[in-house]
Amino acid sequence: MNVLDEGIGPLFMDPDPDKAREFFRQKSRAMVDKRMSAKEAVERFIHDGDYFATGGFGANRIPTAICHEVLRQGRKHLGYLGHTTTHDFELMCAGKCFDRLDAAYIVGLEARGLSPNARRYMQSGEVQVADWSNYAVAARLRAAGEGVSYGLTRSMLGTDTFKHSAAKVVECPFTGKKYAAVPAIWPDVAAIHVHYADMYGDSVIRGISIADYELARAAKHLIITTERIVDDSVIRDDPTATAIPFYLVDAVVEVPYGSYPGNMPYLYFSDEEHLAEWLRVEKDEAEFAKFLDRYIYGVSSFEEYIELCGGQERMEQLRKIENLVRE
Amino acid sequence: MASDYNMMEMMISVAARFLEDGKSVAVGTGAPCAAAMLAQKTHAPDLVVIFEAGGVAPQLPEMPISVGDSRTFYRGVMAAGMVDAMTTCARGQVDYAFLGGAQIDKYGNINSTCIGDYQKPKVRFPGSGGANDFASFCWKTMIMTVHSKSRFVETCDFITSPGFLTGEGAREAAGLPEGGPYKIITDLCVMGFHEETKAMMIESLHPGVEVDKVRSETGFELIVPDEIGVTSPPSAEELRLLRDEVDPLRLVIGRA
User: Which of A137, A142, A143, B200 is deepest in the core (most CB within 10 A)?
Assistant: First the structure.
């Protein structure tokens, strides 16, 4: 196959499918109880220097409890997959947890504005970056899950997004058309928040799956946080609903309101006041440090954080907003 | 005709009129979403709205705050994922997409990545998100933006998403599918692209706007045809729908 052009961006992860297959060959298929705390899951499966990815979409169905724990445990030098990351990206920047980044959507919180602290971190020059489009990243994950070394897309061509990626332009052996070949990526570890799961990790997502179907199949280790743990029979009664089977999963962490302050479809809407507070306090570094101490470093668990943010009363308000209940 | 409209209402109304019934559109939050909702409530009830995170054909109860929040698939026909949304665009089933950016050049290329040096940027923006994919895959892309010299630039610091790249034939040479920028809707005018050179040209000026004003707010040489139309302002019905039904909280249109 002719390689016609290549991006100059860094390639952080080895796209060799046989190395990945060897890893997955060794990964346990045992149907065992994988329940543990967020603290234990991060201690066991996220190490300094690992390449980390978060599921969901910015402030929708994100694994907030795992992100907080990554900060509390002081993880550093992570690689990070910025695949429409917004509040999760804010969190990872707050702890300066990563120094290698594949960026598709970073720094911003969509209609809410840009994160001042994430911008400071990204403008510091401390982070090695490659840029991609959202679909390119999804195609990289999908290729990984398929056990092949690259995916193809006709996007990114002709742009600086391509130039600053690690993609290559290749010629189709059938038609002669040009494609961007995007390297498969097997993150060392990913965290995905779901609606319910059994203790083995069989997981159900309601609403849009975003790129979590692909991410779950690409990540070498997978931490599931779940609104609730259900009996295995609930899964077996309706196996069509299962998005992620147990053999992909390493840890199952029960975290009610685990996407907070993000949205969790059908359960609670995003806490726009709290997200606005983040953007406000980030403007002043000293104030932001105090804010982080209060909400993350100074608490021992996600439950404490939820209490600090208004507890059950606030969660009930967010449930009503989600369900369009007007008062 | 109502005279008390603001520029956001003008831009949204104009954008909505370009969306044909029975076609499909990939939208973001804010003004593009408002334009799609207004089109559905006026001439295009069968306009299919698709969100990049996987929401398909929702009956939007209100303006989403994220292109992945639960409003984006509220009473939709499918809650899919990003691969499904983007491959629908890639195989040619999405007609329109709305894009935005910090800089736009005369070929409709867009910068939403950074200002200054890439490695240590003066300002880092979000990057592509789904924009590069939409700009590559969708048949006709549109931009709604405020018209200013700092935004309409001779050369983008970084081309995040493709317009016509360097002009005629450049998309094809790069390997991009047919498609590209269709309309640029600003607070001063509506612009399109020259059929051959693919450079930006004025199509219509908003009521009361002179060509010189547009020129002075544009950082490159715009094509100014001999005959330029006047943009129709929002009708009373468009304004009523926008204010009462599309955006009753006035999150996007503000207070007129």
Answer: A137
